[in-house]
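User: For documentation purposes, I need each entry recorded in a consistent format: the amino acid sequence on its own, followed directly by the corresponding structure tokens. There are two entries in this batch. Please keep commentary to a minimum and don't merge the entries.

Assistant: Recorded as requested. Entry 1:
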Amino acid sequence: METALYAPVKAFLEARGFAVKGEVRGCDVVAVKADAKLLVIAELKLGLSMELLLQATDRMAMADEVWLAVPATRKGRDQDRRAHRLCRMMGVGLLAVTLSTGRVAVLADPGPFRLGLAGRKRSRLMAEFAKRQGDPTPGGGRGRAIMTAYRQAALALAGKLRDGPARPRDLKAVAPDAGKILYRNVYGWFARPATGLYALAPEGEAALAAWLAEAALTG
């Protein structure tokens, strides 16, 4: 029961210098530090959920700090780093309580938080957006191949090689990274009949036909 969380959370807040009482005007836990005029509210739940996060937003209008407390698990939502990040973004504290021992672990601190930009991921996202020609794949699709900029370049090379074998330097007008794409041959579309010379493999012919058909259906 949620009441099993109360004693450990109360001890946690008392250790921080608060006077603590339970079930005050609909709040599971209310803690006050009179000398600093600080009011803290903690809500106790058996699991982290959207309803609990919504409840936290209501409590934030009344309290200086809001904490959410849930039982500690091994693989539950309380262990999800995305949940920790969300709580920090909201300015809500998150506690995981080990019921067998009463140990309280702070998973996220309450207070102002600014999400730092993931520089490498951001640059990759921007690069893919810039390189991709047109808008070939509708958003929200699942279970289907995505027409990435890399796949577009590989298909362009495959189309050019239909005219016959060629060397990478002769294909740079089609794809600036022609040499890397042909050498890596990620999709298995290309054959190498001689050193430095590339041709279209049967798999490449099949891929061209399949993607042309897909474009006809979605276009």
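Entry 2:
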Amino acid sequence: MAISVTLHILAAVIWVGGMFFAYLCLRPAAQAVLEPEQRLTLWVNTFDRFFVWVFIAIIVILASGYWMIFNEYGGFKGIGINIEIMQVLGIIMMLIFAHVYFAPFKRLKRFVAARDFPQAGKNLQQIRVLVAINLVIGLATIIVAAAGPHLLYSMDMN
């Protein structure tokens, strides 16, 4: 179980940490020093690299998560509500990411390549909103994962 937990946590840290860095560090820095055309090009190049890691993270999270459920907990009957919540939140995040990747990001790339920066900017704004939502869900998922068993234990003690 140590390997599957480690892989699960590392994949979550890569994904959620990447969103945190992009949204709260890279975005304001890029806005402060780059012109819109440069920012949009930077975002396409950044997302091209980061989204590969997100796809890898999703595969690792799903594989390690379901490995633990079926091989360590004996299936869904052996998991607690915290793991069920974590699973639901993770699937919501994956669906939001899939939408980002296959809709506004594809359009963003197309508009930047065509040098239609106003339309590219509109798609980047959609991505920003969805990344903000996914970041909040990701942080909530981490809280559930880290504190969930302890919260459940304290509830059982009362």
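Summary note for entry 2:
The CA atoms of residues 18 and 68 lie 25 Å apart.
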